[in-house]
């Protein structure tokens, strides 16, 4: 064979571009179809669940109290604390099951455990923010509430709730997958969270000895910060953004460290 007939060496295969975003998008679509596509109504129930809860709380407490601790609208008072609380709870709960939910897909070499976490994080953040926007708009327009919204404060509260949910969810993702009993224990530990997160009241309404204990609950800082954004006269002096930020970053770093070290072992459990 002459030198002119020698075939040229094959060009090296180029890595597929945008591989990670495409994987994350595919996981998001799968999550949407499994979470909201299997029941009639789909996303309608994502909106109706907080609406029903806030309506019930408004009806019960308005019958016993003349006015809430802040303002005159029970609906806005409860929604301003419940929506960031729900964002945290949804994220921490969904992310804690990210590995077990996507375990069949994570066995493919092109899918990483971080893809499953990012997909669930993005979908739930977008969903909860959209639901919150609709709910707040409905309450303000329906009851004709005149208030000056502090948007930077409101955005900060949602961002802290998302960070906290991400950190606790990643840490629990390892603990629950590695130690299934931890899931039951965590459910028991967090049962009083709905009460301890200052949804029905503000921190200033409770005695100081209990206030010092509730201060260590980072979610209480988030709900207080959110109410500061809706009520211009409410200072919420107890709120510490650095505390919530450190709590979220520490749990996130520890969770990612454990998952990065042991995620292959967890897939074989």
Task: Explain what the structure shows.
The structure is a single chain. The chain is mostly helical and 269 residues long. Helices cover 70% and strands 0% of the residues. The chain has 12 helices and no strands. It has helices at residues 19-35, 43-64, 74-96, 98-101, 103-106, 113-142, 151-178, 181-189, 193-196, 208-214, 218-230, 241-267. Helix 3 (74-96) packs parallel to helix 7.
What portion of residues belong to β-strands? Answer: under 5%
- The N- and C-terminal alpha carbons lie at a distance of 56 Å
> What is the helix/strand order?
HHHHHHHHHHHH
Q: What gyration radius follows from the Cα positions, in whole Å?
A: 23 Å
Please tally the helical runs, counting DSSP H or I stretches of 4 or more residues.
12
- As residue ranges, the low-confidence spans are 10-14
Overall form: globular
Percent helix, as a range, is 55-70%
Main beta sheet, described? Answer: none
How many E strands? 0
Q: Give the integer mean of the pLDDT values.
A: 86
Structural class: mainly alpha
Describe the structure concisely for a colleague.
With 269 residues, the protein is mostly helical.
Topology:
Elements: H1 19-35, H2 43-64, H3 74-96, H4 98-101, H5 103-106, H6 113-142, H7 151-178, H8 181-189, H9 193-196, H10 208-214, H11 218-230, H12 241-267
Helix pairs in contact: 1-6, 2-3, 2-6, 3-6, 3-7, 3-11, 6-7, 7-11, 7-12, 11-12
List keywords for this structure.
269 residues; mainly alpha; 12 helices
